[in-house]
Amino acid sequence: MSRNWDEFLAPYKQAVDELKIKLRGIRSQCDLENEHSPIEFVTGRVKPVASILDKAFHKKVPEDKLETEIQDIAGLRIMCQFVDDIKQVVHLLRQRTDFTILEERDYITNKKASGYRSYHVVIEYPVQTIHGEKKIMAEIQIRTLAMNFWATIEHSLNYKYNGQFPEVLKKRLESLAEAAFHMDEEMTRIKLEIQEAQAYVVKKRGKNT
Ligand code: 0O2
Q: 3-class DSSP state for residue 117?
């Protein structure tokens, strides 16, 4: 099947561009209201053609089923400071009316065998084209900075090994994923202690006025 890839990918590119602006808008709104933003930063990409074909090959997806079977041709990534920010982001996504959530995959509660942690939300997003509306699928990955640090490097190392890490490296990477998660947990504990101390000071000041 010969395909015009530019034409095929155009709505995905439009969706990624629009969703980046919309999701970054959540951060701007929080900043404006002096609220802690659950979003640190947002990135997005359209999957390169070679990766689409590679994934289709491994998942045995025929070329005419790419739109329905490959969910992350349009991919967004939301990075958060704290693990509990992820829940808040998911809550905000569930409230939105500009897309429909099709599926959620919680790889934080159920981490992958590799050690990978992230929360995936698959959405159906309506793109407005000159020929009318076209609904496409997009995958939003929500993770902490520490989870992102691990996943980014593991992904690039994995690429070098073509997905076939030697067992000993697998184990070391898995234990690094745990170390990253412990860092997340300790950061949360520190944040909560600071918040408690701040609440105590505010209460004490109130009593003295
Ligand atoms: P990219 O764009 O290069 O990151 P699968 O059948 O497991 O391939 P599926 O069904 O699409 O995947 O769903 P899943 O597992 O929810 O999402 C796959 C994506 O999650 C991957 O995309 C990665 O971005 C990320 N991911 C999943 N497992 C791991 C992992 O062990 N390590 C890292 N670093 N990332 C992971 P792709 O297709 O790899 O593409």
A: coil
Domains and CATH numbers, the chain: 5-208 (3.30.460.10)
The answer, yes or no, to whether any atom of ligand 1 lies below 6 A from the CB of 51, is yes
Q: Is the CB of 151 under 6 A from ligand 1?
A: yes
The C-alpha atoms of residue 138 and residue 42 are separated, in whole angstroms, by 14
Instruction: Name the residue with tokens 């006025």.
Output: 209
Spacing, Cα 39 to ligand 1 middle (Å) = 21
Q: How far apart are CA 70 and CA 146, in angstroms?
A: 27
ipTM: 0.93
From residue 159, alpha-carbon distances to 29, 37, 82, 133, 153 in Å are 37, 33, 28, 36, 10
| 191, two tokens | 């944040």
Rounded Cα–Cα distance for residues 193 and 209 (Å): 25
- The candidate with the shortest Cα–Cα distance to 116, out of 127, 125, 107, is 107
Reported as a single tens digit per residue, the pLDDT across 5-34 is 999 999 999 999 999 999 999 999 999 999
For residue 87, how many other CB atoms are within 10 A of its CB? 15
Angle at alpha carbon of residue 126, lines to 4 and 145, rounded to 5°: 90
Distances (CA, A) of 61 to 58, 65, 66, 166: 8, 6, 7, 28
For 73-99, write each residue's pLDDT tens digit.
Answer: 999 999 999 999 999 999 999 999 999
